[in-house]
Design goal:
Elements lengths: L1 H18 L11 E2 L1 H8 L3 H9 L10 E3 L2 E5 H10 L4
Antiparallel strand pairs: 1-3, 2-3
């Protein structure tokens, strides 16, 4: 039983490290979650969801919504990010 708990803790730590891994744009999946975007931008998931709820005309992140789930197409995210550059 003790070994099973230790194995679960190691698995959880491995999963945590995997989500914190730095990815290039090419390595990103085609459909992004708030968690992935939050990790890339060093923002909270809550803030990402807030940005998804703002209209794109007002500067929000364009999203796909299926039921209560919100996702972002990688191409839309890249375009949105490019539009945020300050010259």
């Amino acid at each position: 039983m003790k070994q099973k708990i230790i194995d679960q803790e190691v698995d959880q730590q491995d999963n945590k490290n995997e989500t914190n891994k730095i990815m290039t744009i090419e390595e990103l999946p085609d459909i992004l979650t708030a968690k992935i975007i939050a990790g890339m931008l060093d923002l909270s998931k809550r803030r990402i969801y807030e940005l998804m709820d703002i209209s794109t005309e007002a500067g929000g992140i364009p999203k796909i919504q299926i039921g209560r789930s919100k996702r972002v197409m990688k191409t839309d995210f890249i375009e949105w990010l490019e539009s945020k550059k300050v010259m």
